[in-house]
């Protein structure tokens, strides 16, 4: 049942990619006055078509890759990573909880007072903090010390209404959930080894270390408050957990944003994954998925060739918003090239030359992106 839901989700993600292509077509159609450009855009729109039988083929391929990834680590395009999360929130939780979302060059700290099935979310507050550029190039200790300091400053603003709802059991230890967007190898529900720094970070150390331990050590160096990292998840699992809090039927989490990813609750686990409940949230890493049934166009091929990882993360390059502006750039650049070749008057040629110069400058920025 869950795999059927995932197949439906990947089909929806594919349709989203097509919708993005149509948006580019409509945007260009609105401002274009050249029949030649309309022909180009019509061909592009047609190449992106995903009729029902194509979506079925894609869904079947996803299901096969899911099973292969579960049966043998590394045996599939999909990584199918265990998250060690067996139980999801269901609305019965009570007490005060903190969260830290470290994604990109900003991070967000949040506190939330939960009141159980009747009151649900009583009150929540959050703060977004920009990370100084110097820390993006410094050491992991400097980075996590800064994060811990700002977290403590946020806790100091905790109002009496939050303190009345504490769940410290006399020990006054606040529990923190950590969401992180860097690639990690998770080894338990609250440990994860950093694989590499991304998101513009150029920190020399930290790779190969436990991100939870690094943050916990930084918080322990701060005096006055006791905080424990209770769980480590990524944004995809967090999305599903948030949905499950309000609706027990939620079994799949999908991110369709700058990048794309998915997770789901697997009930038929391999024998080497031991759980008490017999089920676990599996993180798919489906940005790496590829199928010959996906509507790959010459634009997708060009974007892939120009990226820093040609041949990798094909599905993400067709669905992630990070690539949408580059799709627009390639379509416009191709229109410019055709108008320069077939222009009947100098005015159109001159304007096309200026436009192509701008697009080439934009291309330089694209090639320097370290998240591609």
Can you put this structure into words, describing what you see?
Residues 42-245 form the Hexokinase N-terminal domain. Belongs to the hexokinase family. Residues 252-331 form the Hexokinase C-terminal domain. This protein has 372 residues and is α+β, with helices and mostly antiparallel strands. The chain has helices at residues 2-31, 35-47, 52-71, 116-119, 133-136, 140-156, 160-163, 211-221, 235-246, 298-306, 314-319, 324-342, 346-367, and strands spanning 81-82, 94-103, 106-115, 121-130, 173-180, 184-188, 191-194, 226-233, 252-256, 260-266, 280-283. It has a domain at 89-251: ATPase, nucleotide binding domain (Nucleotidyltransferase, domain 5, 2-Layer Sandwich), CATH 3.30.420.40. Helices cover 46% and strands 20% of the residues. The strands form three sheets. The protein has a five-stranded mixed β-sheet. The model is unreliable at 345-355 and 364-372 (pLDDT under 50). The longest helix has 30 residues, at 2-31.
Unreliable parts: 345-355, 364-372
Q: Please give the count of helices.
A: 13
What's the arrangement of strands in the largest beta sheet?
4-3-2-5-8
- Named at the architecture level, the CATH assignment of the domain at 89-251 is 2-Layer Sandwich
Strand content: 15-25%
Helix residue percentage: 40-55%
Annotation, overall tally of beta strands: 11
Question: Which shape, going by the Cα principal axes?
Answer: globular
For the biggest sheet, the summary is: 5 strands, mixed
Mean pLDDT: 82
Fourth-level CATH superfamily of the domain at 89-251: ATPase, nucleotide binding domain
- The third-level CATH topology of the domain at 89-251 is Nucleotidyltransferase, domain 5
Give the SSE string: HHHEEEHEHHHEEEHEHEEEHHHH
Gap between N and C termini, in Å?
33 Å
